[in-house]
Amino acid sequence: MEISTVFLLLSTLLSILLVYLFFSANSRSVRNLPPGPWGWPILGNLPQLGDKPHQTLASLARTYGPLFHLRYGVKDVIVTTSSSVASQFLKTFDANFSDRPPSTGADIHTYSYKDMIFVPYGSRWRMLRKLCFVHLFSNKAMHIFRRVREEEMALLVGRLKNTNGELVRLGEEVNVCVADVLGRAILGKRVFGVKGKGAETFKKLIMEMLEVGVFDIGDFIPGIGWLDIQGVVGKITDIHKRYDMFLDDIITEHERSQKDDGDLLSVMIGMKKKKEDLTGEGEMITDNVIKALLGDLFSAGTDTTSSTSEWALAELIRHPDILEHLQGEIDDVVGRDRLVSDTDLPNLPFLQAVVKEVFRLHPPTPLSLPRLASESCEIQGYHIPKNTMLIVNVWAIGRDPDIWTEPLEFRPSRFLPDGDHANIDVKGNDFEVIPFGAGRRICPGMSLGLKMVQFLTATLVHSFNWKLPDGEFPDKLNMEESFGMTLQRVVPLAAHPQPRLSSDAYKSS
């Protein structure tokens, strides 16, 4: 190694150590931080998180309480595992915690924060959120695209029936359905469920984006980002380049076709051409804004829904009595001569209770997307410094024994009218179950995500009985979790679909 290179590395390490010592001394001068474990020199508590941080943080709460302090590198982090404390952050002090901390990966993926999920709180965020709400998530938009949801659900049923009972990996099949619902609403066409190189390329890109969901140590320790120690930045940059080229082709093709079926991409292209100032502050729709927003919608909207639906079916297979009860309710409302329709869902209270229980035990994002304190504040008697990162452990809140009787048991009855949590919803109003978050930065696609999980769960259990592979037993089904951008199963659910409806019911599929 050349002397100049050695000198550069030593200088970098010395600088890092000095920065760490400065920040550590500064933190010690703030005497009223929440309690928390000691961390490593320079790295702080990062090495202690393990490969399942949501479980590690839940365990730390049993020692340090429901509000505790960590240090990721040189950065302050506050973690809460309590619904009452979370409500203070996301309701009482919501305005102070409405920004996102900067992230190298997010910066690359979102064209320097031109998206809706990671964009700083302000006029651009409001503009993008309104755009998506009006054209995708409002009651009017949900009604317009009802036919799309029903058609794609029928195609899913048809694909499963045509396997003739062969073993299927459910998550993959459901992911195709969800992505094509979004594709038709956003792009005006299917993206996964069609043959061709383009669909396969897009599918691979989305999957790769979701897999790079790890902490990048360079975000927390100044001066070492250029080293890319974990190789995360290199992976993200490579994926982003391919993603960018693919979306450029999508936009160009859409513009050339001059097609406008009311899909979101057509709307955004029209707004781009008009060059309107949408916020009064010079905010306009550009190609990069379009691509960043498309990335948000597909990466956040596909895997969260498909993984939650996979968890739902796994829990129902493990609990045959609950599955039989749910099938009975749907049979009573729908019968066995047709498939479940979108309009049946409000008439299925036990289905809604099942889905709530799935969200409680298996939230799609076990740790909320982090927020950032704009100003210092005091919560629970503790000082929270400016620029502190907030993490809400949604997974731990859903399993809090102080709130839930038998918290590890799958018991949908707790949400029924005579249950002990009958009035709790999952829409951000009740902090005991917040799978979509809460407050200003609540998931904007909550209405569609909730409906899709209900629709998928109802369709899968109504249209088929599910048989595990030979030698596997429901009560022994592997339910181990894998941490990432979404809460995945370590062992994907694979089962044999066995049609249970009359032959007429499958004709539309």
TrEMBL record:
- Any one Pfam family here would be p450
UniProt cross-references to SUPFAM superfamilies, sorted A to Z = Cytochrome P450
Named cofactor requirement(s): heme
Q: Gene3D superfamilies attached here?
A: Cytochrome P450
Name the coiled-coil region(s).
none
The domain of life for this entry's organism is Eukaryota
Supply the alphabetized keyword list: Heme, Iron, Membrane, Metal-binding, Monooxygenase, NADP, Oxidoreductase, Transmembrane, Transmembrane helix
Q: Where are the transmembrane segments?
A: 6-23
Binding-site residues, heme: C443
The family database entries (InterPro entries) matched by this protein are listed as: Cyt_P450, Cyt_P450_CS, Cyt_P450_E_grp-I, Cyt_P450_sf
| UniProt family annotation | Belongs to the cytochrome P450 family.
Recorded hits in PANTHER family, A to Z, give:
CYTOCHROME P450 98A9 (PTHR47944), FLAVONOID 3'-MONOOXYGENASE (PTHR47944:SF18)
Record's protein name: Flavonoid 3'-monooxygenase
Instruction: Please name the source species.
Output: Zostera marina
